[in-house]
Amino acid sequence: MRIQVIVLAACLILSCGAWAAAADAPGIRVPAGAFWMGSDADTEAERPRRRVWLDAFTIDRFEVTFGRYRAFLDSTGRAPPFWGEAWARAYDWVDGRPPEGHGDHPVVVVSWTDADAFCRWAGGRLPTEAEWEKAARGTDGRRYPWGDRYETVRANAYGEEDGHLTSAAVGGYPSGASPYGAQDMAGNVWEWCADWYDPAYYHRGPERNPKGPAEGTRKVVRGGSLGAVPALLRTTFRMGNDPSFRAAAIGFRCVKDVK
């Protein structure tokens, strides 16, 4: 009996290892400086390609997981995310617990408001759209976090070739990391950003620390998801959703200012 207890304890420790790794991983520092933002070769909302200067910041290495989000709920008493759609039950919380087997997966079915509240609770904030893009592509203007050519094995995206038909545990595609080491910035789940979405913003936004329009109706989401085709996984692709919107393929990560 004692051996069984020891084995069970060891299994629990191992299964929680990924939760702990994701929760304890330090933020990645993105140094101050200019980078290429946008693209002249793709959708109108990505134009014009321009040089943008950002102050230094740190960004989460991984998307926020169900495990990390549970700590936030336990601390604040906030209600767990709930969609109510029958097909989304795999992502529903039960008695305050995240979906079984998803502790180290990116939390989903969170609205922009939920994501913003978590980041503030954690001592940070949601990334601006410019911060997200620089963290994803670096300074050389690449199309994907790993380079200019799409490669199936580097991201959890549309199709079975990448090994997953649902979300994957964070950090499951290390070869797809960005130049700074941020992981899963292409695929797995879309990620909320702080900015209001405006498809024409690049034509008039400032070239130093842009923060998006002062007002709007939709918030920016970036990065593509497990159901996205390669064109949507590009580092420059942008779109927006209502801040109250929830989906099984939208999550987030946080940033902090560097003092």
Automatic annotation (TrEMBL):
Q: Sulfatase-modifying factor enzyme-like domain: which residues? A: 28-256
What keywords sit in the KW lines? Answer: Signal
Tell me the InterPro entries matching this sequence: CTDL_fold, Sulfatase_Mod_Factor_Kinase, SUMF_dom, SUMF_sf
Domain of life of the organism in this record?
A: Bacteria
Query: Which residues constitute the signal peptide according to the record?
Result: 1-20
Coiled-coil boundaries: none
One GO molecular function term of this record is: formylglycine-generating oxidase activity
Q: What is this protein called?
A: Sulfatase-modifying factor enzyme-like domain-containing protein
